[in-house]
Amino acid sequence: MFKNLKSSTTLHNGVKMPWIGLGVFKVQDGEEAVNSVKAALEVGYRSIDTAAIYRNEDGVGKGIKESNVPREELFITTKVWNADQGYESTLAAFDTSMKKLGLDYLDLYLIHWAAPAVGKYVETWKALEKLYKDGRVRAIGVSNFKIHHLEEVMNQCEIVPMVNQVEYHPRFNQRELHAFCKKHEIQLEAWSPLAQGGLLEDPTLVEIANKYNKSVAQIIIRWDLQTGVVTIPKSTKPHRIEENANVFDFELSPEDMTKINSLNTDQRLFADPDDFNRV
């Protein structure tokens, strides 16, 4: 199941999505983004996750082009920002992202936040359905959606989201949401899987890391995989990008999985999707 960086999960529409990708949140556009993407692709990553609001789609696109990795081997994700939600504005935002990325088609397009006060995520989802039906994107999904947001989309639209990308780490393992997504064949994906570095000195994780002769980051990423969650750790350092991918030569025992699961506090580090409406 988890053999290497090309190992993938199959979304409910049959599209294969790599279990591990490179996240580029807060990666500077230009040289930093270009080099990070190229370093990841050279190591063997095939999934890159960006977003319009990251303002680095140009750099990501340039890194993809300069890597010379065949397009069909890649899985590229970007997201529509809150200010662009709405049917026509989402279609326009998609065109803008594609121009910046320099791509003919996208592998996964996500609604970045539900932004309930904006009140347009159902309308936005219908625009994603059109892009999907038109063959411009291979899979569509959402990000930072809670159960009731997903239910509203599923009740009012035709296509069930294929992915839900959310805050997910050992201290916030979203058990109810994960169970809901499994029931409806929605692939859960973790952003900030290392809690922006906040877990790297956790005593339990350090102990487990020493046992396997791995870094804490590698333990967390492996835990993600074994819980069936796609993960996109972010780094701009080539050695860290490579280290984060070196998680296929060991397996966490059931006892250690239980220990990591016990770290859950149900406390978010970041915004609650019901309250985040920034445009």
UniProtKB/TrEMBL annotation:
Ranges that cross the membrane: none
GO molecular function, one term: oxidoreductase activity, acting on the CH-OH group of donors, NAD or NADP as acceptor
Active site: Y54
Binding site for substrate: H112
Site (Lowers pKa of active site Tyr): K79
Signal peptide residue numbers: none
Similarity comment text for this entry: Belongs to the aldo/keto reductase family.
Protein name (Swiss-Prot/TrEMBL): Aldo/keto reductase
Natural source organism: Paenibacillus cremeus
